[in-house]
Amino acid sequence: MTAYLLEHAWLGGPGTARNVRVEVADGRFTRVEPGGVVTGAEPVPGLTLPGLANTHSHVFHRALRGRTEAADQDGGGSFWTWRQQMYAVAARLDPDSLFALARATYLEMVLAGITAVGEFHYLHHRPDGSPYPAHAMEQAVAAAAGEAGIALTLLDTCYLTADLTGEGAPTRPVEGVQRRFSDGDVGGWCRRVDALAGILPADVVLGAAIHSVRAVSRADLPVVAGWAREHGAPLHVHLSEQPAEDDACREAWGCTPTALLAAADVLGPDLTVVHATHVTDGDVRLLGDAGVHLALCPTTERDLADGIAPAGRLVDAGATLTLGSDSNAVVDLLEEARAAEAHERLATGTRGRWSSDALLRAATSDGCRALGRPGDGRIAVGARADLVTLDLGTPRTAGALPATAALAATAADVVRVVTAGEERVARGTAAHHATEVGAELAVAVRQAWGEES
Which of 47, 293, 350, 405 is 20 to 30 A removed from 395 (C-alpha atoms)? Predict the structure, then answer.
């Protein structure tokens, strides 16, 4: 048993508690007591939160950070030109280089206080579309997460068509690098995921994902959703990220992507929709009535010029807010939380849409539920013992009230991280670990691009 005495702790409700004694055994909290006894407990100064839950990551996109802007200097850059650069990286990766990049990126997440991640994974096969033995790419991601100490929900992604088209057929077959993403047909995806379920580490949650309505046909949507429901697995989908996607869906099927998902019986409380940037008023009602989770990724949405989602209206309608890092252009879930509120202010002209407590729930317990980990993301008896401590004396946090300090902080203010009861970052070592992880990332990114070290 390990015991900590937390100077300030956020326990899920309004405000913070002082001098909270927590005890941990076998990776779970066994005691949580505000005003608890000091004897035998390690003092932890600062503000301690539950571990942060990143509901949407494409880990290999980390190789693009700082490398895509040059192509946009003529002012003509867009999501679609960025995608071509992403495809260039996707075409190169193999199990070894994916493992190296994923391990380094997950270590970066842990340093930022992220202790659970949903990996929206579609790099399944060799470049020609033939399978690797023993699910090598999925195993690489799982092994990388295990070494980093981050709880992984592997959202195995169904990706079967290249795009929607109104030119004689609703969809177009995969082409080029997309062959790596496809299992040929939805039956092939089901068989591969069924086999994968038997070999992943026990602590990995296996979920499902529909890449988008561009990549899974109308007839196949309910099959993927049915697999998730049959297995009690979380289901995620990219939704209305770009206007072109919505326009193509209307041309092909005569409705919005949300309405298409509704007609295919995909919507429900176990579904997480990612982005929902360009949903209509009717879509908002459908998503809210279904009680979906919303994975908002503000730093990526602004990096890709996607736009600002109507997140406040979606939550008012009945959706649950969660947060993701998506392309990992920024790995800082505190910044994602702050940006969710800031973008809402820009869109509505009013302040204070979400309280600090609401944003922290989005970044912790609500995120864990979207990842198929209900009960975690809390400092509470029985929950996985994930703790993140912020220094309250940095130039960013000094003078902030403990109750709202998390929204003044950045990932650089994280000074202690515990995952499943194991200390990953200790006070005084964060800077050292950051230097090591930076060096590991530099090597992994160069390897991903095929550059010499």
Answer: 350
**73 pLDDT tier (thresholds 50, 70, 90):** low
What CATH number has the domain spanning 2-50+379-437? 2.30.40.10
Q: Judge contact between 151 and 116, C-beta under 8 A.
A: yes
3-state DSSP assignment of residue 147: helix
> What values do phi and psi take at 334, rounded to 5?
-65, -35
Q: What are the pLDDT digits (tens) for 344-356?
A: 999 999 999 999 9
Class at the top of the CATH hierarchy for domain 52-370:
alpha beta
**Per residue in 184-234, pLDDT tens?**
999 999 999 999 999 999 999 999 999 999 999 999 999 999 999 999 999
How confident is the prediction for the chain on average, in pLDDT? 95
Strand partners of residue 44: 6
Secondary structure letter of residue 78 according to DSSP = -
Q: In 3-state terms, what secondary structure has residue 452?
A: coil
CA distance 316 to 77: 34
Own/partner contacts of 400-406, CB < 8 Å, gap of 24 or more, are 402/8, 402/16, 402/47, 403/10, 403/14, 403/15, 403/16, 403/356, 404/356, 405/47, 406/10, 406/47, 406/49, 406/334, 406/337, 406/356, 406/359, 406/360
Q: Which of 156, 283, 326, 332 is catalytic?
A: 326
Share of the chain above pLDDT 90, in %: 92
For 119, phi then psi, to 5°, come to -95, 110
List helix spans (H) across 276-374. Answer: 281-290, 298-303, 311-317, 333-348, 356-363, 365-370
pTM exceeds 0.70: yes
Q: Please indicate whether residue 275 is annotated as part of the active site.
A: yes
Give, for 322, the enclosing helix (H) or strand (E): strand 320-323
Q: What does the block give as tokens for 7?
A: 């100077």
Name beta bridge partners: 93: none
| 381 vs 244: CA distance, rounded Å | 47
Q: What is the pLDDT of residue 453?
A: 59
Phi, psi of 198 (to 5 degrees): -85, -5
* Domain residue ranges of the chain, discontinuous segments joined by +: 2-50+379-437, 52-370
Given the residues 8, 125, 236, 275, select the one marked as catalytic: 275
Q: Which structure tokens are listed for 414?
A: 């994280």
Between β-strands 320-323 and 387-390, what pairing exists: parallel, antiparallel or unpaired?
unpaired
| Mean pLDDT score, 425-440 | 91
